[in-house]
Amino acid sequence: MNASNDSGHKNKKIFLDLLMKKLLMIFLLVLFIAVVITNTLVVQEDELVVIKQFGRIEKIIDKPGLYFKLPLIQNTDSLTKKLSNYEVRPITVFSKDKKNVIAISYAVWKITEPHSFINNVANTDSAEALIENSVHSALREKFSELYYIEIIRGAASGKDYNDDITAEVNKQLQNTGIDILDVRLMRTELTADDTEIVYETIKSEREKIAKQYITAAENEASQIEAEADIQAELKTFPGLQYRKEVIAIINGVIYISDVLATAPHSSVEALKDIAKTYKDAKIFLLYGGANRNVSQSDAIDEFNKIKSKYVVITLPDTGFEVESQLKNVKHCEDLACGIIWASENAKPGDVVLLAPGAPSFHRYENYEKLHEHFIELVDNI
Question: N or C, which end of the chain has less CB nearby within 10 Å?
Answer without folding.
Answer: N
